[in-house]
Design brief:
Length: 247
Amino acid sequence: MTKLVCPDCRHENEPERIYCHNCGARLDRSAVKKEKIESEESTQGTHDRLKRMFDPARGRSRAIATKVVQVIVGALCLAVVIQMVLPPDLPPEVKSESFAPMISMDLLSAIESHNPPRLTYSQEQVNDYLVSSIRRSNSPAKEGYFPIRRIFIQFEEGICRMHVAYNFCGLTLFNSCFYQVTVSEGKIQALCEGGYLGRMPIHPLLLRRLGFLFRKTWETLDREHKQIAKLAGIEFHPQSVTLLVAR
């Protein structure tokens, strides 16, 4: 509490006094008024803060905002899941009336004899061969919790698009990866350039870390994968692929 000091006799007076109790001089009450104003402002500020804290409307607004954010996040997650479950736009699986080419035998013969110098297959021939590979009785494609139902290849200029369909509890799930092939130090290297989970696009850097998604595919095509590694190169063209045999 502020004491009022008399300017004449320096006597300390109670804050309620107007004149000095000792000498009767008029006191300067400006300090008391300032303290009173600050006290009132502080009290009012505390009252306003408490009012805001216990305001039921404020709590409802926060609850509504939280609920809206939860709904938006939930909708985004659901949209991502739906995109991952939806199948990509692929041609329907058609049973070919012709015999599938013996690509593996052709590769083995060409690698051992170095003749012919190149083998060319159409996209349809490659897909027919993949169908027969999956249907082999000892194929790893039928094993595990996610047996492979279909492997479909699309060839474009310089790019091979591989689509794999898995069976899970009666539901067909798809993943896709796009490869670009280069030859470095005499070895064929395939670089992932992007892909999809269902219809959900996946960045190439992330997809390269998700290589386990295609582990069963490469196990199914392990024999062909080892044979292709011995080639001198691969050329992808629209609807066809050319395998270059090392001399």
